[in-house]
Amino acid sequence: MHINIAEGVFIRHNQLDEQRDSIWLIHGFADSGLVYQESFQSKLAEHFNLFVPDMPGFGVSPLGTDHKDIKRQAALLADIIKKSTKENRNINLVAHSIGGLIGTWICQQLEDRINHYVNVEGNLTEADSYFSNKPLKYANGQEFLEAFEQEIFKKAQAEERYRRYYASLRFAQIEGMVAWAESSQEHIKNNRCGHEFIQLKCPKTYLWGDLDTPLDTQTFIREHKLPHKRYPGIGHWHMVENPTRFYDDILHLCKA
């Protein structure tokens, strides 16, 4: 694994090859690029240039002052992706949880360059905002963080997926988490995010597991006949719970 920093964004990547297309993997709320660490040992790394950023305010990327709003972060990453990709190479996106908003907006900006967009339990309905809206329920960010860390630590004692998540949470900046929560709400209300995903013209697939995906979202998927793949018995972190199949499926989708 190699490291690059672009516009203050910390990016992990494999050995780059100018003849390969790229896959950018975007994390969710309070998470970091650590969630995709198995990607570098997967078959994906043999076929694609992999880029795994820590979004500003998460992992080791500083929040700064100009890109706190989640949509502005999407614009920043879209610019980084465009500058990092040769004109004759395609771009693939994988985005997880509320990072799906970022993925959708990048597709809107770079749609003619997108080969495939894989949305992994990204926000389609208001019901999907079960973690990212938590900061709004507390008087201040510190109160939220103390309660959220306790909640995740308790779950981490029993489940590997939460142990991985807790490790990233410990690096997340309070101000960054609050900013994502506040700035995402207008895009989630009335399932606006889901309808934006529907309207994308690029090839796209929604991956979801039946353990954590809310019933409202499952209904939304069926009613709108979204291109999707369901994973029985899998929870929210497919890349941690089911990495071999997860990355094999992404390889199949992006090479199709």
Structure description:
Strand 3, helix 1 and strand 4 (49-54) form a beta-alpha-beta unit. The chain has 10 helices and 8 strands. The chain is α/β, with parallel strands linked by helices and 256 residues long. The mean pLDDT is 95. Strands 1-2-4-3-5-6-7-8 form an 8-stranded mixed sheet, with helices on both faces. It is 41% helix and 17% strand. The two termini are 26 Å apart. The chain has helices spanning 44-47, 70-84, 99-109, 141-156, 160-169, 174-188, 192-199, 215-223, 238-241, 243-255; strands spanning 2-6, 9-13, 22-26, 49-54, 91-96, 114-120, 204-209, 228-231.
SSE inventory with pairings:
Blueprint: E1 2-6, E2 9-13, E3 22-26, H1 44-47, E4 49-54, H2 70-84, E5 91-96, H3 99-109, E6 114-120, H4 141-156, H5 160-169, H6 174-188, H7 192-199, E7 204-209, H8 215-223, E8 228-231, H9 238-241, H10 243-255
Parallel strand pairs: 3-4, 3-5, 5-6, 6-7, 7-8
Antiparallel strand pairs: 1-2, 2-4
Helix pairs in contact: 2-3, 4-5
